[in-house]
Amino acid sequence: MTGSQKIWALVSHQLRRRWRSLLGWGLALGALGALYVGLYPSMSGLMEDFIKNAPESLQRWMGNSEGPMTAEQWLGMEFLNLMVPLALPFLVILMGTRTVAGDEERKNLDLLLGLPIHRRHLIASTTVTMAISLTAVLVSTWLLTYIAVLIAQVDLRPGRLALSFVAIWPMSLLFGVLALFMSTLVRRAFVANVMPAVILVVMYVLELLGQLSQKMEPAQVVSLFHHLGKPIEGDFHLLAVLLMLAGACVLVAGAMVAFSKRDIYT
Amino acid sequence: MQPAVLTERLTKRYGLRIGIDSLDLEIRSGEVFGFIGPNGAGKTTTLRLLLDLIHPTGGRAQVLGLDCHNDSVAIRRSVGYLPGDFGLDTRMTGRDLLGYFGRLRGLSDLGIAPQLAARLGLDLDLPMGRLSRGNRQKVGLVQALFHQPPLLILDEPTTGVDPLVQDTFLQVLREARDEGRTVFLSSHILSEVERVCDRVAIVRGGKLAALETTDSLLEKRRKRVTMTFTAPVEGATFAKLPGVSEVRVDDKTVSLRLHDGIDAVVKAAARHTLVDMSIIHPTLDEIFMSYYEEQQP
Fold first, then answer.
1. Is B275 helix (H, G, I), strand (E, B) or coil?
2. Are B54 and A17 in contact (CB < 8 Å)?
3. Shortest Cα–Cα distance, B289 to chain A (Å)
4. In chain A, which ranges are continuous DSSP H helix?
5. Do B87 and A106 touch (CB under 8 A)?
6. Tens digit of pLDDT for each residue in A114-127?
7. Contact: A266, B91; criterion CB under 8 Å
8. How far is B203 from chain A (nearest CA, A)?
9. Distance between CA atoms of residues B49 and B34, nearest Å
């Protein structure tokens, strides 16, 4: 049996374990997207008046737009630029820690690593599972959101919407892989979960503060949320996406090395 | 013939604590080898070192002629392993788990799993979450055996299973030996080791205290001999004999503990008129305890 066959066997098992959870995530985020789209026709006019009378900081956060708020601006303001990129990494952070530190805590790893598989197979399969899971959730979110776009007859191009989700994918994967890396270093799933989660929340807060206050703008540079750009409005940061993917690859390699060197605890 | 397991000065330390210290061990192909000792003696550490789940601090180990670290995947292909303490995905059934493990072993079916499950009285179609501890242990046993590996490494395999299932399982191990397979079994249930093992190693505080055939271990250690004569006999007659201790005289009955051969005792007894004589062989349990008593500082 080749390594790739073993990895695929591990991936398909992990996906079978999680398909209900993935379905839930896809439906929940898709429903949220659809809700935002459904609200847009009635909110666009209201938002125009609101922005005109809002403080400068709030106007900056909302994109300093003049005239009626577009569907792209409406979806990008919270749903695509803050809510989905904040929520989705948590899905893969939990996956990343569950496979190594989590299964180690539950004493499942001894049985699994008693089989003829390399530890790097486990790391690779978890990474692939995270990538597939993210894709599945984002595709279903896109699909449900776009169905709402068609029903509500909102002027929004499907490609632009898809591009927003494409930009979120590597950032989410990076956090999942960071959690996986952490779980190869520490034996407690809780500890491995906390570090990427805290980094994620701090980055979210920095991005939010940067949008609201000019003084905090320089701090945005350390936030990955900032580097997502606004793909739905045509601002797609390809370099940032590639760098996040490269970072994920480095972390995967680090996780493989760290996991192969350490003892499995009982 | 190449040994199934060979360790040379194998050492594992956990910080300042010793897991196993300079262990030299050779397990021959086709034998059932017992590894006994109390909790914390280093049994599980040794087994997990062989499977590369933990890495040695010193020394080296080979399984089936392969290096435990560099060739660990090849080793695990030929080994059925049952950990001492393991978790199972509660939503999976035994059949699901065996199918999954079978796929990772490159098997297209469940091998002898259905027959083994039937012999052990295990329902493979129940979710693991609904199984008792004993039945989960049976799932562990079946997953270690179902692909018929040449070497079985089993850590406390009968923990939690009832005596009838223990009997069946020990029979399965005997059959594995008869088919030429090797079994490395750790246990603190000495009666099962006594019943199934060809050779036994006793480990204490991370060090090997004894390694003998089960028969010779049972044979050479402290038999209790009780003799009844037609008339009272002086205990000193027997007390001075080599290998004799704990001589007790009760009227016409003499009881003693014998460490070595019985020849001298029989000759001494033959000088009197002997009515009855019984020899009680110690259990492995008693032997095990005697090793511990002897080695206490």
1. strand
2. no
3. 27
4. 3-53, 56-61, 71-75, 84-97, 103-105, 109-112, 119-152, 158-185, 189-212, 224-227, 238-261
5. yes
6. 999 999 999 999 99
7. no
8. 20
9. 17
Reference B50, options A101, A113, A184; nearest CA is A113
Chain mean pLDDT for chain B: 90
Contacts of A110 in chain B (CB under 8 A): 48, 53, 81, 83, 85-86
Residue type, B47: L
ipTM, 2 dp: 0.84
Instruction: Say whether residue B74 is in contact with chain A using an 8 A CB cutoff.
Output: yes
**Do B85 and B74 contact (CB within 8 A), yes or no?**
no
Q: What is the pLDDT of residue A77?
A: 81
Distance from CA of B215 to the nearest CA of A (A): 32
User: What is d(CA B133, CA A240) in angstroms, rounded to the nearest whole number?
Assistant: 51
CB A14 within 8 A of CB A100: no
Q: Provide, rounded to the nearest whole percent, the portion of chain A with pLDDT above 90.
A: 62
A55 touching B, CB under 8 A? no
CA-CA distances (angstroms) from residue A141 to A34, A80, A84, A89, B240? Answer: 9, 11, 10, 15, 91
| Exposed e or buried b per residue across A191-221, where buried means at least 16 C-beta atoms within 10 angstroms of its C-beta | ebbbbbbebbeebbebbbbbbbeeeeeebbe
| Residue A232 clears pLDDT 50, i.e. is over it | yes
Give the residue-averaged pLDDT of B52-81.
95
Per-residue pLDDT for B264 more than 70? yes
The predicted model scores a pTM of 0.84
pLDDT digits (tens, 9 = 90+) for A13-57: 999 989 999 999 999 999 999 999 988 888 777 777 777 777 777
**Tell me, what amino acid is at A180?**
L
Residue A185 to residue A101: CA distance in whole angstroms: 9
Query: Exposed, middle or buried by CB within 10 Å (0-12, 13-18, 19+), for B69?
Result: middle
A108 CB within 8 Å of a chain B CB: yes
Tell me A69's DSSP state.
Answer: P
Give the position of tokens 């052990």.
B120
Q: Given its phi and psi angles, is residue B206 left (phi above 0), alpha (psi -120 to 50 degrees) or beta? A: left
> What is the spatial distance between Cα A174 and Cα A180, in angstroms, rounded to a whole number?
10
Record the tokens describing residue B77, joined without a space.
Answer: 């292909």
Enumerate residues 6+ apart whose C-beta is below 8 A from B12.
B18, B19, B20, B42, B45, B49, B54, B56, B57
Contacts of residue A99, defined as CB under 8 A and 6 or more positions apart, other chains included, come to A14, A122, A125, A126, A129, A180, A183
Q: Is B268 an 8 Å CB contact of chain A?
A: no
DSSP assignment string, A153-181: T----HHHHHHHHHHHHHHHHHHHHHHHH
* Per-residue pLDDT reduced to its tens digit, B159-194: 888 888 889 999 999 999 999 999 999 987 777 888
Give the Cα separation of A70 and B194 in Å (integer): 81
User: How many helical (H) and strand (E) elements, i.e. helices and strands, does chain B have?
Assistant: 11, 14
Q: How confident is the model at residue B297 (pLDDT cuts 50, 70, 90)?
A: very low
